[in-house]
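Translate sequence into structure tokens.
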Amino acid sequence: MTEDFNAGQLTVEELRELIPQLQQLTEKYKRSEHIQRALFDISELAGSISELSRLYVAIHEIIGQFMNAQNFFVALYEKDDEFVEFPYFVDQFDESVIKQIPAKDLLGGIAGYILKSGQHLVLTEENFEKESKERNIKAIGKTPVDLIGVPLKRGNRVIGAMVVQSYDKAVRYVKDELDLLLFVSQHIVNALDRVKSRELTEQTIRERTKQLREINDELQEEILERQKVESLQQALFEISEIAASVEGEMSDFYASLHDILARLLSAPNCYVAIIDEKQSSLEFPYYSDEIDDVVNSRPLSNGLTEFVLRSGKAELIDPDRVNDLAAQNELDQKTADNMIKHTNSWIGSPLYVDGVISGVIAVQTYGKDSKYTLKDLELLKFVSHHIAVAIERKRAAESIQKYNMQLSRKVRERTDELHQTNLYLKKQIEERKDIELKLIHDAHHDALTNLPNRVMFNSRLELAVANKNRYPEHQFAVLFIDLDRFKQINDSLGHHAGDMFLVEVAKRISKCIRAHDLLARLGGDEFVILLDSFDDFNDVEEVANRIIQTLAIPFQFDNKEMYSGASIGIANIEQGYKTADELIRDADAAMYQAKALGRGRFVLFDTSMRQKLLEELELENEFRKTLNNQHFDSQIQAVVNFQTNRILYHEFFVRWIHPTIGKIKREQFWKVAQSSGLTVEIDNFMLEQAIKVLQHWRTLGESEATQKIAINLSISHLSQSRLVNQIIERVKSAQIDPSNLVFEFDENELNHRSQFMLPAIKKLKRSGVILVLDNFGSGLASLSYLYSYPFDYVKIDHKFVKSITRSKRNYNLIRSVLAISSQLSFKLIAEGIENEDQYNALVEAGCTLGQGHYIQSPISMTAILAQDSLPTR
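Result follows.
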């Protein structure tokens, strides 16, 4: 190429000025992306992590996305324990693996203060001595520059502490980082509590038993109350008797009513008020009061009696309430003042005859020592119905033949008594039936949404499966619905808002299905639907689309707008299904496929999904067997200096040839390793093979010191100091010169947890190992690695080399990195050189180191170990 490029004309000073600007821009986008990813990770963390050791690493990673958390540990302590447990401990000055420390030795320190007080702690270089003295904290270990510690609480009980600290004066903490730790601390407690799920289940059973016992106690109390009601029957009978009597005057009748009423509640003062025929005034046929002897008829006004007539129900009025009624113009102020003056307590109940109010019966007391209660109000209200009937009957007895009225009244009274008895017995039976129905309902419905639960859904689904096998023309389908961002809503707004969210989701989904379809909640944020007897699969798709659309509408909680969504898996009920669990399993598999395709969509299950799951499981099992038997295809490929034509080092890598599938792609190989949790084991396998090659070369001559071999080391090996120490110790025990080993680290993996890897990488550098940044340019933070990490070599990603002959932009990028390399003390390696044109373009750009099939094809390890001379070009 003959065209001049600007990057090649940049001076050293301009490059130095360019680097911080590029770093700031890169860090800005990196932090924005990490924040979005962390929000989702936090919401999924409690449900996705199954091992506590992985939980602590994941929590460490999430915290490190927002703050420098190079030094981080978690301490657990239950009251009266002898030791404080340290399930996770990463510290740049204390690299030993700390599992537990006697509580008596630790409770006086920083972690001990948090465990004892249950309060968070923020210590800085400026306030450390002051805070330590005031809080009686004894420094243990090296004193940090900054420290933030938060308690781990189960409810109000402190069970542990989580601490981050910095020994670097350039790394200081702010309040936002304290808030982050306080937020994350609850997730650790939630994960720990999963271990005690059985205990919680048993506790739930005990609580449910207690609730049923309390319900039974309430029923017993109600029975006692009803027995008390029966004791009123005698008084009611007496009221009926005096009403049925043909002898005596009305004044005697009212006096007898007063006597009976006085035996039921405190009634030193009593009166009966009747509305006249014109409905304009009140008459008082009976009035007995210790202050006023006589009261005359009066027009309707704003008195106590008129208030009951207007409300149509029994009322209890005392000095505490009377002012409020006066302020509402329900009572006149004179009446209110008079009640306050005499500390009056008054109860009045309307007298209903044939559904029409004919008057009021009232009782009242004076003085602070006698006040009516709500029980008195209910009692008068109950008795007043009988009194009203009795008054009406007595008054009617004076206008018609006493004999006929007496006979009619007795028949009616006996009928009422039987009716009341029948009603009482019927109510008892109905109440017991209601209790039984409620217990059955609770056993088959979700307590929060009142939807059918898994038990009821499985029962209905089993019937649908049987129906399909008997009548193939009938159409049924199962929809498995999983909500998006439910954990985020639950954790950010609280469990109450999360419950309200699930209730609202249940309402929305219910509107999307037909009346005879069945919607159920399996638990958490999972819902299922049984579509019953549809004509065409388009109907199923229409229902799924309606659900997705309605759940995409924003939810409002506490004046905040929250967005969710749904991923739906659909399984048609076909002949051949035997159980409901098979259908739910297949619909669930289709739902996961919908989530993998981007959420907010539905996927119909087919047998290939089940086959794919089985194949993945079989592939993972075969991977484990191959690793245990060390049957991987091991190869090495040289990195060559173009100018001297000498080998810089050999890269060792493994390939997997499956006995039935054949050659497994590199991406799938590492995906299987990561999903099965065997990345560290693969690293150890490659390290042992590399040591074997170096030991073989050592037996061939003194010049083996120039032979170096490289392996691709996973960042899982850098997450804990213990693993790094094991690598260094293994190299020493094999009597291998560390400078003959080259460790390559993939840039994309470093992007995920770069803040925690730097101490481990520096430790490897100090041990003498050569370090290489692999696949440079494929990630988002490449320049930060060049500037901050002690890499000896940087491998440009093969995608840039592949297109160098037709992309000026990639060509300029390689030249720019070459220009930077001389300033930052690293050398550039071009990988993936496949042809002569690529090679010539790299040489023209100034690149002197490369690797690829054009330079040298890979050589099997078997062939290397069989050679009796050191490898050359």
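Note: The first strand starts at residue 71 and ends at 76.
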